[in-house]
């Protein structure tokens, strides 16, 4: 009888561990999405993989990389805009292409 209590205790600890990490929530959402599919398919495992695979782990490194990416996109857009302005300014001082070829 003590063996059953130990197994139940381990099972409960494991369930709490999965719940704490968000695994149970992700699996529940994946199964719910499978139930909501209009056509039942033979590739249920693929649907679960798709829904479970889209869950992003909460990792500080990923968050930092996302912030860095957003900053780089802003810098890129600013550089593109500055490039356009400088090209327009340069075009004011350069003679037209037709005059260059005539010389």
UniProtKB/TrEMBL annotation:
One of its GO terms (cellular component) is nucleus. Keywords: Coiled coil, Nucleus. One of its GO terms (molecular function) is transcription coactivator activity. It is found in: Nucleus. InterPro entries: AMY1. CDD domains: ZIP_MycBP-like. Residues 62-89 form a coiled coil. Belongs to the AMY1 family. PANTHER family: ASSOCIATE OF C-MYC AMY-1, C-MYC-BINDING PROTEIN. This is c-Myc-binding protein-like.
């Amino acid at each position: 009888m003590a063996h059953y209590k130990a197994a139940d205790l381990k099972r409960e600890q494991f369930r709490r561990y999965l719940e704490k990490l968000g695994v149970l929530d992700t699996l529940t959402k994946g199964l719910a999405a499978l139930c909501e599919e209009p056509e039942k398919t033979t590739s249920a495992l693929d649907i679960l993989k798709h829904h479970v695979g889209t869950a992003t782990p909460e990792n500080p490194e990923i968050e930092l990389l996302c912030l860095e990416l957003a900053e780089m996109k802003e810098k890129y857009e600013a550089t593109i805009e500055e490039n356009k302005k400088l090209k327009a300014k340069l075009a004011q001082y350069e003679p037209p292409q037709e005059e260059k070829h005539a010389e």
